[in-house]
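Lecture 7, part 2: worked example. A protein chain together with cobalt (II) ion.
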Amino acid sequence: MIGRLNHIGIAVPSIEEAADTYRSLYGATDITAPFDMAEQGVRVCFVNLPNSQIELIEPLGETSPILNFLKANPRGGQHHVCFEVADIWQAKAEMERRGAQVLNEPRIGAHGTLIIFVHPKNSNGVLIELMESPKGAHPRVD
Ligand code: CO
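Predicted complex, written out as structure tokens:
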């Protein structure tokens, strides 16, 4: 079962320009420095909000997986939604048992914990990222 909404991923042509929009238009003050995720072909930064994060994603390199998305959406657009799960391997097995198409083997994501992506066809056209909750990142309420 999915837990907390961790972040919303937004593909952008320029991380600096997008961060500036969140800063100047919406008044966001807590925006992390961009960093490269060379293996995933993306450059990423986070806009920290009181209850969640916006993940800004810029293509990195010629084979970036978001180049096609930006070709179709040149000004950028909502790319994925990320929910936390307790155990990524269990989540992957359960998603597959339920007939969903998991797009990758669990790998380390931008938060340093394991992630998988579920095909948009399984969720009303929305690409879903499932991410193992960072240990001790926020207290569990149960
Ligand atoms: Co993400």
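The domain at 5-132 is CATH 3.10.180.10 (2,3-Dihydroxybiphenyl 1,2-Dioxygenase; domain 1). The CA atoms of residues 92 and 98 lie 10 Å apart. Keep this in mind for problem set question 3.
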